Amino acid sequence: MIIAIRTYGFIYYDVPVFQFPLIGMCLIFAGWVLGTQYDKLKFFSEKDSLTMLYNRRFILNIFPKIIASVDRKQEKLILYFIDVDDFKIINDSRGHKIGDQVLQRIANVLMLHVHKRDFVARWAGDEFLILSTLSDADHHATMIRCIQNELQDASQAFQLEISVSIGTAMYPNEAQTLDDLLHVADQAMYSLKTDRKNHYKVTMAKS
Question: Per residue in 30-48, pLDDT tens?
């Protein structure tokens, strides 16, 4: 492009061929800056700035395309809804800086145990989301078990209890829309939390 512009300038405006292309360099630099800023804006419009996972906006935009692909391939989709247990206690007792580090560690653990086709997002403050087309029951159980095991290691590193509750919902068997899938997974997640708390109370009462 530079050669073409210089040839045009030489032919029609008598601009010396070997003159330093100051204007051209300025235009190229301006284009590079604008392109870089656009890339940054696009990145942060899709990603959560703390965890570098996808954000809620991206999931809302991409979900119809995921469903269209799932329907076309006659696959199933599992939504994993993940909530950090007692995150407020972590923030209150250790501070928001440690709380942010815990969220980053959980995000890394989630990314470690998903496949390339999966989408991992920070849905809200201490809530995460995974959309996976791998609906094999063995994979489903193995992934949850690996996540919990990794978080046990994280608990030792931070010297505090880090755990998550995970509820799931399957498309199209249990729900067909994102809101309905979230509702089913959210109910399953809270049932798990309740069962865990009740079990803890029973155990404490026996001891």
Answer: 665 556 554 455 545 799 9
Question: Cα–Cα distance between 195 and 138 in angstroms, integer?
Answer: 23
* Span 53-57, average pLDDT: 96
In sequence order, the 6+-apart residues with CB closer than 8 A to the CB of 135 are 75, 76, 77, 78, 170
Question: Measured between alpha carbons, how far is 83 from 168 in angstroms, rounded to an integer?
Answer: 12
> Helices 96-112 and 137-158, interaxial angle, to 10°?
150
* Residue-wise pLDDT tens digits, 91-124: 999 999 999 999 999 999 999 999 888 999 999 9
**Which residues, in sequence order, are CB contacts of 134 under 8 Å at separation 6+?**
78, 115, 117, 118, 140
Residues with Cβ < 8 Å from 3, sequence gap 6 or more?
A: none
Here the tokens at position 100 are 């942010």
Angstrom distance (rounded) from CA 174 to CA 180:
8
| Token output for 177 | 């829309």
Summarize the confidence of residues 181-200 as an average pLDDT. 83
What is the value of pTM for the model shown?
0.76
Given its phi and psi angles, is residue 144 left (phi above 0), alpha (psi -120 to 50 degrees) or beta? alpha
Catalytic residues: 126
